[in-house]
Amino acid sequence: IRSVSIESNSLATLKNGLCGLESLLFDRVSIISKNIIRYFPVLRQKSDKIFEVPIGVNLDFFKPVPLARQSELREKLKLGRGNILIYVGKMDSTRQLHKLIQSFRILKDQMRDNAVSLLMDGDGADRLNIQSMSVDMGLQHHVHFTGLVPYAEVRDYISIPDIAISYIPINQTY
Question: What is the rounded (10 degree) CA torsion for 30, 34, 39, 42?
């Protein structure tokens, strides 16, 4: 169970109740936090069949990166001055990243001096299409593609931007 309805009304109670009842049909139930159980009293009966799969960050690894390293990467990636946004993740057509690029263009056009860059960190089957689209839209000096970054270097890259984008389209895949 990934999420619950936290509203305090009868519809939310009904949704959570149905989800809890549905979970009784399964041998095991995974939850993202033990706190979820309070919304599903029926799960207390199956406590031995519930396992927690937390969604989170490894705080031992993801720590602030020195400003000198951030500056070094900004220079290496030719990010220029101004605000920097980052997208980290898979680049395939189900992510609909063309919408992100289109939205970024609107943002760039509204920024004074166009002082904004988008760092696209990741790889996938749609990366070349997204890169080509960026060029076609005249964004080649504002959208920067890193390709697949080794895990050990990801924290350095995500320390660069001012804003991180977690773009998840509403479609059948997600």
Answer: 60
Nearest Cα residue to 88 out of 2, 138, 139, 163? 163
Q: Which residue has the tokens 């263009």?
A: 105
Tell me the CA distances in angstroms from 101 to 38, 62, 97, 174, one per residue in order. 41, 27, 6, 19
- Residue pair 130/103 in contact (Cβ under 8 Å)? The answer is no
pTM of the model: 0.69
- Which residues are CB-neighbours of 87 under 8 A, at least 6 positions away? 97, 100, 118, 119, 120, 121, 122, 164, 165, 167
The one-letter code for the residue type at 119 is: L
Q: Are strands 50-52 and 83-88 parallel, antiparallel or unpaired?
A: unpaired
Question: pLDDT (tens digit, 0 to 9) for every residue of the chain, 174 residues total?
Answer: 666 766 778 888 888 788 878 887 888 888 887 777 777 777 777 778 888 887 777 778 888 899 999 999 999 998 877 899 999 999 999 999 999 999 999 999 998 777 899 999 999 999 999 999 999 999 999 999 999 999 899 999 999 999 999 888 777 665
* 88, containing H or E segment: strand 83-88
